[in-house]
Specification:
The protein is mainly alpha-helical. It has one domain. It is 69% helix and 1% strand. It has a two-stranded antiparallel sheet with strand order 1-2. The chain is globular. It is a multi-pass membrane protein. InterPro entries: EmrE-like, SLC35_F1/F2/F6, UCP036436.
């Protein structure tokens, strides 16, 4: 069935905003400007400030939810389901995981390339699968176990590409690249814990996904904003890339933004894109399918890699292409995107098709849970 213009618009919006989110965060990292205290030009290395901006974008989803709800209630026949009332503190544990995982990933993005950052985030299916078996009692299909193994292979290839490229990369030392890659994978463990917590305690409540995203964004924005105060006084020595060598120097970040306003444009791109990405993701699941959403989520990795090459942010690496293809295959196997093809072969027994598998996924994403976030 041919897509409508609105469906094409939603797919394009999700792909575009998902790509802009990572690219804008990396763009901010590449700026250099004077800071406070009369310091000379230095890199904009403020991952926790960037994370606060990301949570502000998530928080805006709560505003969008109430605007849409008010607009819907003015119609003769309201169609929007607001969901049941719930205790907002239910979202505090996953919000804390989101806050920690996002902050670690922004630290890692300072150390490695945007394409590797996006590719290595595919590790989340490994830990989500294992934790869902351990804590949710889920039984993974053989194809999902194979998908996890293939994903591990893809991560090894991407890591190897970074190791090879690290020797000739002027922007990042080899040690930084390896550390950044390891931090990204470590962050995926935290993100997988977040997903399991959401599924165990949140999805059983009929919470609209925009409201869920906005509530977690509220907790993340408030808590991390308050934590910027003690971070300003915590010395971490050479581990910090700011003049005072503290965990986070928010004042220095604002001074750098004042000296180079383009940094603010990059941060705004990150904040706005996360809001539109969450909205587009929900709409794609509702208007098209959860399978399409998974495919678009994988395609944005390719977009980020192509744009990074075009802008000269990184060098071409054949191993990266191989790693991306392997990760794509692993993701497809884990999410069951191969089933329609396998069902057509007479030698294989019929399994649940990808579109049939969309039913519980669609219900989970639309009626009781948080969208897949871009951090």
């Amino acid at each position: 069935m041919a897509w409508t213009k609105y469906q094409l618009f939603l797919a394009g919006l999700m792909l575009t905003t998902g790509s802009i989110n990572t690219l804008s965060a990396k763009w901010a990292d590449m700026f250099s400007a004077p800071g406070c205290y009369g310091t000379k030009d230095h890199n904009f290395s403020h991952p926790f400030v960037q994370a606060v901006g990301m949570f502000l974008g998530e928080l805006s989803c709560l505003v969008v939810f109430h605007i849409l709800l008010c607009h819907d209630r003015r119609r003769p026949e309201p169609s929007m389901e607001p969901g049941q009332s719930f205790n907002p503190l239910l979202f505090l544990p996953p919000a804390l995981c989101d806050m920690l995982g996002t902050s670690i990933m922004y630290v890692a993005l300072n150390m490695t390339s945007a394409s590797s950052f996006q590719m290595l985030r595919g590790a989340v299916i490994i830990f989500t699968g294992l934790l869902s078996v351990a804590f949710l009692g889920r039984r993974l299909q053989p194809s999902q176990w194979i998908g996890i193994l293939v994903t591990i292979l893809g991560l090894v290839v991407v890591g190897l590409a970074d190791f090879v490229n690290g020797h000739g990369d002027d922007s990042h030392k080899l040690s930084e690249v390896i550390t950044g890659d390891l931090l990204i994978i470590m962050a995926q463990i935290i993100v997988s814990v977040q997903m399991v917590l959401e599924e165990k305690f949140v999805y059983k409540h009929n919470v609209h996904p925009l409201k869920a995203v906005g509530t977690e964004g509220f907790f993340g924005f408030v808590i991390l904003s308050l934590l910027l105060i003690p971070m300003f006084y915590i010395p971490v020595g050479s581990f910090a890339d700011n003049p005072r060598q503290v965990l986070e120097d928010a004042l220095d970040a604002f001074c750098q933004i004042g000296h180079k306003p383009l940094i603010m444009l990059a941060l705004l791109g990150n904040t706005v894109s996360i809001a539109f990405f969450n909205f587009a993701g929900i709409s794609v699941t509702k208007e098209i399918s959860a399978t399409t959403r998974m495919v678009l989520d994988s395609l944005r990795t390719l977009v980020i890699w192509v744009v990074s090459l075009a802008l000269g942010w990184e060098k071409f690496q054949g191993l990266q292409i191989l790693g991306f293809i392997i990760l794509l295959v692993g993701t497809a196997l884990y999410n069951g995107l191969h089933k329609p093809l396998m069902d057509k072969l007479p030698c294989f027994p019929r399994e649940q098709t990808a579109e049939e598998g969309d039913a519980p996924e669609r219900e989970r994403l639309l009626g009781g849970g948080k969208t897949t976030q871009e951090s």
